[in-house]
């Protein structure tokens, strides 16, 4: 955990970012990171702009977030 924390703060310092907020959850380990910033008008890359042949990068298995509630587990 210390190595993760050190790396996170090194990146925050490198990109001149601040860590704000937090969340409380029950469980052995939970990590969530949201990054917010400003994009000039007309420069955002949106899913609606995807075209055949574009690369798509996915972590985890597509559909997992919808599958959890459908099983009734974890509620």
UniProtKB/TrEMBL annotation:
<dbReference type="GO" id="GO:0009030">
    <property type="term" value="F:thiamine-phosphate kinase activity"/>
</dbReference>
<protein>
    <submittedName>
        <fullName>Thiamine-monophosphate kinase</fullName>
    </submittedName>
</protein>
<dbReference type="InterPro" id="IPR036676">
    <property type="entry name" value="PurM-like_C_sf"/>
</dbReference>
<keyword id="KW-0808">Transferase</keyword>
<keyword id="KW-0418">Kinase</keyword>
<dbReference type="InterPro" id="IPR006283">
    <property type="entry name" value="ThiL-like"/>
</dbReference>
<dbReference type="GO" id="GO:0009228">
    <property type="term" value="P:thiamine biosynthetic process"/>
</dbReference>
